[in-house]
Write a structure and sequence with these properties.
The protein is built from 14 helices and two strands; from the N terminus they run ββαααααααααααααα. With 302 residues, the protein is an all-alpha fold. It has a single domain, classed as Tetracycline Repressor, domain 2. A two-stranded antiparallel sheet has the order 1-2. Strand 1 and strand 2 form a beta hairpin. Helix 3 runs parallel beside helix 7.
Length: 302
């Protein structure tokens, strides 16, 4: 793995990745940069549970668990959706579609990621280990939700909502109302922006029998539903200080800032112009997660 990558012809028309190129293609396959959406919320859950900074060891295993769970979910999604990805022009350049990565490689990566998640849960505490299989089942089953229900967006949201809840359990070894409220806020937040993202595939989803809010209700109504989900997110964020009294002025300003960012996100996307969906998806939502982490740290510190 120290020299140029070896490459061999593949059935997908692309050259097969080896060595460091395989690692890079894997990161592309799982969209590793999207971990930034959930990881700050995991840190927020850990901060709230500890009433400040948790131990370095706990943080290390929380990060490892997050990477393992999300990577497993994304790899499994790519495997499950391979036939659809081959037919969708928007996803035709994904590494499994082009043949840059092979299915056996993907199954191996899935096993490694799931193993990392379960190991991390075992290293945290007994409750995280006991709940880990159920959590893994939730995040993996999302891959088939779109075949069953247009509520698939809430399934994805719940999968990411596990981040603050799991981090709280990792620190305290118990479940409480505060992380459940924060997990619900994350669930609605993710579901809201996933509805926006799904608007790009409304025609494809209808043609191939895939279910989503845009394909079920149309883009105009989907945008309204997304706005309602994000209004629920802000409401739950404003509710959280009732369960965590140390959250004060900074948190409330953060909730207001989140509302402003989400309003801006919805102004970027119009029924007749979806060209800025990716800008809304990456830029705004990355700011939301880091803003919430920042204001929670400020309130807990001062």
């Amino acid at each position: 793995m120290n020299g140029p990558a070896e490459r061999a012809p593949s059935l997908g028309g692309a050259t097969r990745a080896r060595g460091w190129r395989a690692l890079g293609a894997t990161l592309v396959m799982i969209k590793f940069q999207h971990t930034l959406f959930a990881l700050p919320f995991a840190f927020t859950g850990a901060l709230l549970a500890a009433g400040g900074a948790p131990s370095g060891r706990t943080v290390l295993w929380i990060v490892a668990a997050m990477i393992g769970a999300r990577s497993a979910a994304m790899v499994f999604n790519r495997i499950a959706d391979l036939d659809f990805d081959r037919r969708n022009p928007r996803t035709a350049d994904r590494p499994l579609v082009t043949g840059e990565l092979t299915l056996p490689f993907a199954w191996g990566a899935l096993a490694a990621a799931a193993g990392l998640f379960l190991l991390s849960a075992a290293m945290l505490n007994r409750m995280t280990l006991v709940l880990a299989p159920a959590a893994l089942a939730l995040v993996l089953s999302y891959s088939y939700a779109k075949r069953i229900t247009w509520l698939t967006h809430l399934h994805l949201g719940a999968s990411l909502g596990l981040a603050p809840l799991g981090a709280w359990i990792a620190v305290r070894g118990e479940i409480a109302a505060a992380p459940l409220v924060l997990a619900a806020a994350v669930t609605l937040w993710v579901a809201g922006f996933d509805v926006l993202y799904a608007c790009q595939d409304v025609t494809f989803d209808r043609d191939h029998g895939l279910r989503s809010i845009p394909s079920r209700f149309g883009i105009v109504r989907a945008l309204r539903i997304s706005s309602a989900l994000h209004a629920g997110t802000v409401s739950l964020l404003l509710l959280l200080p009732l369960f965590v009294p140390r959250l004060g002025a900074a948190w409330l300003l953060g909730a207001a800032g989140t509302a402003a960012l989400l309003i801006y996100e919805h102004r970027l996307v119009r029924p007749d112009d979806l060209s800025r969906v990716n800008q809304a998806f990456f830029l705004v939502n990355g700011c939301v997660s880091f803003l919430i982490l920042l204001v929670s740290a400020i309130d807990l510190a001062f």
